[in-house]
Amino acid sequence: MRINPNKCVACGNCTYVCPMGAIYIDPSLKRATINHDECVECYACFNGLSQEHLPPTLVRAARKVLASLRIRFDPEPDVCPTAAFEPDQLAWPRVVRRAFSDPRVPHESTGIDGRGTEEVKTNDVTGRVGPNEVGFTIELGRPGVGARFYEIQEMSRALARAGVSFEKRNPVTTLMSDVSTGTIREDILNEKVLSAILEIKVPVERVEEIIGIVKDVGRGLDNVVTIGAGVRCDAQGNDHLVGPIFERLGYKLERAKTNAGLGKRYEPVTTMVNS
Amino acid sequence: MTNTLHRFGDAKSFHDDFIVFAMASKGAFKQPNPLPALKRFLQIALEYKPVNLGDPRNGGAFRSSKSMNPMAHWTRDNSPNFQAVIDGLTEVTTCAAVFDNQQAAEQFLARVRQEDFGLSVNISTSVQGAEDCCHFANIPRHSVGYSLGFEGKTENMPNRQVAMLSTMCGHGMISHSLAKKMIDFVKENRRTPEQAAAVMSRFCSCGVFNPARARRILEEARTNTKAR
User: Does residue A204 form part of some domain?
Assistant: First the structure.
């Protein structure tokens, strides 16, 4: 993303809407400026701000007069008055940032929007997580923190050392140069994304061990780790197996997404990669 | 969607937050074109008075404008445009309907079951709330994806009310700064909770932001009462 300096009037609206806080008004340029190392190409500025097409010179003059009189200018907070945002043509590896950060762009590897994973949302069709199994989603970067792939790799390598299987139909897995060690390709390690999800599946007996690993690695990262756990219910729609384990481990199960089992199965294929 | 799973708040704070979404499994299974079923899913949702609708490719019922008239500042429409979501659905993706009461979500789920779309349908809310919806619709839960919350350096997170607002877009499109600014605008009486909620809604790319819950949180933030 870039901000056209000929159009920008330094109103500052965009500085609030950037999820990474990467936009600021440069005091010497007197224009909004993007810290490109922190920008994750999420397009929140371009997609979320409404655009007016006012003449920049006129707006700057009006703002200057009002500011000199100490009159507070009170525009709509979600408007770029001069449509100054202009998307860049992204090349590799920077294009990875947008794939993981702009929910309007589906992941090429999975064809899925957002973070690119189905987890147990389609478990009624895929059977991805079976009885006595737990499908973990381990996400770095949420909420509004952002994550670099070298941080994600610390987590993936720790999980690989524990001998877990990474979900094949997951965008992070497709970017691993060695799935058996959880190693992510080197040319993207410093790329920053809004968040990324590692997906694994383990037998119920390993729940406590996996939680321990995730917590241990999380303590060493300057980041937030968000954990989701998908389970298969019994024929009556109950989970008497995994929920109680989490409660014993001290988790309060406040929120969940619940698959109602209305999907229909067609042709099955295998989806897990064994490390 | 993971983007609806990790909303900040306790179970009671989700009493007005029910998201029902439908999707077709991609790639792993060949199935008939699910687009008509997805469109029908959105159409029948309207009968149960959602507070938002959307899909991640095209956006929600609150959208930004690429050519806003400057005069619109004084006459801005902050109401949802549900028809734009339905008309805009031209590709297979995830479709979501957001409700601010359990009764509507229950009845909608029961109707979706009757319609027999063959799509995977999920309810994202409190664990108990979703269980109640399934019970009402006489559906045994197939699978549950629990949120175990946040670990690691949680000091990187914002305060409770900001987090409750910004995490209603799990894709992170609503920045903490914008949520804080909208709380401040309401506290200063520069915007109403309705206006501030509409501003944030426009940033949520897939229409799962709940403007009704946002209005309640903003109203509670105005007087610094505890948001539930």
Answer: yes
In a shared domain, residues A135 and A201: yes
Domain range holding B185? Answer: 2-222
Note the pTM of the prediction, 2 decimals.
Answer: 0.94
Min Cα separation A25/chain B (Å): 15
Residue B227 inside a domain? The answer is no
Q: Is A74 on the interface with B (CB under 8 A)?
A: yes
Distance CA(A43)–CA(A50), nearest Å, equals 13
Q: What span, in angstroms and rounded, lies between the C-alpha atoms of A148 and A197?
A: 12
* B90-142 confidence digits (pLDDT tens): 999 899 999 999 999 999 999 999 999 999 999 999 999 999 999 999 999 99
Q: Domain containing A71 — which CATH number?
A: 3.30.70.20
Position B47 in a domain: yes
User: Looking at the predicted complex, does its ipTM rise above 0.90?
Assistant: yes
A56-87 pLDDT, tens per residue? 999 999 999 998 998 877 779 999 999 999 99
Cβ A51–B157 below 8 Å, yes or no? no
User: Number of structural domains, chain B?
Assistant: 1
Nearest chain B residue to A235 by CA distance is B140
Q: In three state form, how does the secondary structure of A229-265 look?
A: EEEECCCCCCCCCHHHHHHHCCCCCCEEEEECCCCCC
| Minimal Cβ distance to B134: which of A211, A231, A260 | A260
Count of CB atoms within 10 A of residue A51's CB? 18
Q: Is residue A40 domain-shared with residue A143, that is, in the same domain?
A: no
* Chain B contacts in chain A segment 96-115 (CB below 8 A): 101-104, 106, 110-115
A76 with A163, same domain?
A: no
Q: Which of B144, B205, B228 to mutate to test the interface with A (most CBs of A within 10 A)?
A: B144
Cβ–Cβ below 8 Å for A258 and B26: no
**Residue A25, strand partner residues:** A32
C-beta of residue A141 within 8 angstroms of C-beta of residue A196: yes
A65 and A137 within one domain:
no
Residue A268, chain B, CB below 8 Å: the answer is yes
Range of the domain at A255: 111-273
pLDDT digits (tens, 9 = 90+) for B161-177: 999 999 999 899 999 99
